[in-house]
Amino acid sequence: MHKINFNANKNVKYSTLDAFKIFFWSLIFTQLASFIVVFVLSNISATNGITYNELISNKWIVLALMLIYPAVLTALFFNYNSKYNFDIKKACGLNFKFDYIQVGITLLLSFSCLFLIAPFINLLDSLYKWIGYSPNSNLLFNMTTPLDLILSILVVALVPAVVEETIFRGVILRGLLGKFKPHIAIILSALFFMLIHGSLQQTVYQFILGIVLGYVAIFGGIHYAMLLHFFNNGIVLIINYFSTPVDTVAPIMASNVIIAIIMFIFAIAVFVGLLKYMKNVGSVIAKQNQVMNSEADKDIEVMPDSQAEISNKSGVKGKEGWLTTALNKNEVLYLTMSLVFSISIWLANTISSIS
C-alpha cells in the first residue's frame, strides 16, 4: 500500500531568483525595522526625560532589540515560503540527525575560526583604530549573573544560529546552487552574509565564517552549519563571561604581522583538512541513509538526500565561467539592487563610525 504524500504539489527547491529576492527583502525589512525602532525609542526617551543611551542600556530593552533582527528575518522567511508554496523542510534541507563525528569536526572548525584567525583579526582591528574607526557597541549585553549568560546564549547564539543559517545557507546558498558553480555560490552567499551585518569591523571575519559555514552546509548539512554558528557565538559569550575584558588589539609590529599571517595560513590548511573529512563522512552517511530508506519501503520512490545531491553537484562542470546557466533579467535586477543597497549601507555605517 502506497503512502499518500500531501506535500506533492509543494515546491522543494529554491531558485537563484528566490535567493536574490530573500536577500534583497532581508535588507529592506531589517533596515526599515531599525529606523522604526530608533524612532520609537527616541520618542520614548524624549517623553520620559532620559537620554537615548540611558534607555538602551537597560538589560531587557537590549535583549528585545537583539531579537528584532532575527524576528524580522523569521517573519520574512515564513511569509515567503507560504506565498510561493515551499515545503520548508525539503527546500532548506533541514535534518536534525546528528552524527558524533560530524559534531566533533564542527566543534574543531569553530575553535579554528575563533582562535587561529584571531591574531589576524586583531591586527585588522588595530588598523581600523589607526584610521579613526570606532564601531558602535551600544547594544552589547552586559553579563553579570548566570541568568545573563543563559539569556545571552539564547538570544545571541541560539536564535541567530537557527534563523541566519536557515536564510543564508538554507534559502540563499541552495538557491544560488541552481545557476552558480558550488564554490562561487558559497563565496557569494558569504558575501551576502558579510554585507547584511553592515560593519567594517566584522567584514573579514564574517566573510571567512560565511565561507566555512557554506562548505559545512554542503558537506555535512544545514544543521551542522547551525551548530557551528551556535558554537562560534556561544564560546565567545562564555569566554567573556568568565574572563576580565582586556584590550586584544595587537600593535602593528613586524613580529605580530608574521605570526598573524602564519596562523592564518595554518587556519586555512586546518579548514581544508577538516572540511574534506566532513565531506567524506557525510558521503558515507548519505549512502547509508539511502540504503536504509530503500530497504524500508522498496515500493515508494525515495527522494535523494538533499545534502548528498548538493555535494554531488560539486563535481558537475558548468558550461563556462562561474555560471552553469545565464542569469535572467529579474535575477540581474534583484542582484544589482541587493548589492547596491547593501554596499551603500555598509559604506554609510563605516563612514559614520570614522572620527
If you had to describe this structure to a student in words, what would you say it looks like?
With 355 residues, the protein is mainly alpha-helical. It has one domain (16-352). 72% of the residues lie in helices and 0% in strands. It has 13 helices and no strands. Mean pLDDT is 84; it is low at 1-6, 296-306 and 314-319.
Summarize the structure.
The chain has 355 residues and is mainly alpha-helical. It has one domain (16-352). It has helices at residues 16-48, 52-55, 59-83, 88-92, 100-116, 118-130, 146-176, 182-197, 203-219, 222-242, 254-296, 306-313, 329-352.
Topology at a glance:
Blueprint: H1 16-48, H2 52-55, H3 59-83, H4 88-92, H5 100-116, H6 118-130, H7 146-176, H8 182-197, H9 203-219, H10 222-242, H11 254-296, H12 306-313, H13 329-352
Helix pairs in contact: 1-3, 1-7, 1-13, 3-7, 5-10, 5-11, 6-11, 7-8, 7-10, 8-9, 8-13, 9-10, 9-11
Residues in helix, %: over 70%
Low-confidence stretches: 1-6, 296-306, 314-319
Q: How far apart are the termini?
A: 71 Å
Cα-based radius of gyration, to the nearest Å:
22 Å
Largest sheet: none
Shape label: globular
User: If you average the pLDDT, what whole number results?
Assistant: 84
Instruction: Provide the domain count.
Output: 1
Write the element-wise H/E pattern from the N-terminal end onward: HHHHHHHHHHHHH
Category by helix and strand content: mainly alpha
* Share of β-strand residues: under 5%
Tally the beta strands.
Answer: 0
Helical stretch count?
13
Question: What labels describe this entry?
Answer:
single chain; 355 residues; mainly alpha; globular
